[in-house]
Each structure stands twice: as C-alpha cells, then as structure tokens.
Amino acid sequence: xxxxxxxxxxxxxxxxxxxxxxxxxxxxxxxxxxxxxxxxxxxxxxxxxxxxxxxxxxxxxxxxxxxxxxxxxxxxxxxxxxxxxxxxxxxxxxxxxxxxxxxxxxxxxxxxxxxxxxxxxxxxxxxx
Length: 128
What we know:
By secondary structure, this protein is an all-beta fold.
C-alpha cells in the first residue's frame, strides 16, 4: 500500500495480485491497483496527466506517461474523491510502482505533481 499527500492531495494505492488472469508458467503476472485521490486542500484541482515508473523483480524499468487516468481528467472540488482501478502486467512475481499525477489548481492555473510513493506488487507468500 502507498499513502502520500502533496499540497493537500492524498493518493492512496491498494495493489492486489490477479491470479485468475495470470500465467506463472508463461511468466505473466497481472496486478491490479485501486487508487483513491482525495482533495484535502481548499482549492479545486484537476488531474491532467500521469507518470508511472514500473520496476520488475529483475530491475527492468518501464515508464508510462499519458493524459488523465482511465480515460478521465477528473476535477476535484475541496473534500471530493475520485477512485479508479487499473492494472499492471509484469514478467516477474514481484515488482514496484511509483509516480505522480500532474495537477492544476483551477483558480490560479498553478501546476504541481502529486507524488505517489512506491508500492510493492507481489504474489501472495512470495516474500516474507
């Protein structure tokens, strides 16, 4: 799990292994992650883009950048939440993800990156 606050924007990530869509014999492991973005600031903000750094268990790094999340660029009023679930395939049974969401304060136009601290992707009982 990851729980990070940047400028009043709290991002919580809860990952899980998706065994029914994985094939360990073929080195295909699918992980889902549920994200909650909560605006704890006094400003209305909009999520514009995402940047993920994905590292598998062999140290191979992949970066993913794109507009919004799951097809949305949500606007969050003070006190509002936005939740979504997405997935990440790996070729190893363990890995990590971290990144940031580029946000803009609607009233001022100020941009900032809301950080997402690293979280572990791991099949159950693979790590102590």
